[in-house]
Amino acid sequence: MWWVYVLRCRDGSFYTGATNHLRRRVESHQAGQGARYTRSRRPVRLWWVSGPYGHSQALRLESRIKRLSHSEKMALPGRTASEGGMG
């Protein structure tokens, strides 16, 4: 099972990713061991998550979300600020 997620960074920017272990991945971003982009923008918080998907479907959705504008990411439907126990 794969999840697509959007993090909100300290500077207000967004980071989009896909993972098969949501909680561990968010924790790695928080610890500064995730993507290079989020290392200098901590703390981050989970803004939106969707899934579960198969691997290829998750990567396609991740790619589509990465192309959204900042305001479109702000308005993602059903966005969440917590993991909701997923992962």
UniProtKB/TrEMBL annotation:
Positions of the GIY-YIG domain: 1-75
InterPro entries: GIY-YIG_endonuc (IPR000305), GIY-YIG_endonuc_sf (IPR035901), UPF0213_domain (IPR050190)
Cited Pfam families: GIY-YIG
CDD domains per record: GIY-YIG_UPF0213
Source organism superkingdom: Bacteria
Family (UniProt): Belongs to the UPF0213 family.
PANTHER family: UPF0213 PROTEIN YHBQ (PTHR34477)
Name this polypeptide is given: Excinuclease ABC C subunit domain protein
Organism: Sulfobacillus acidophilus (strain ATCC 700253 / DSM 10332 / NAL)
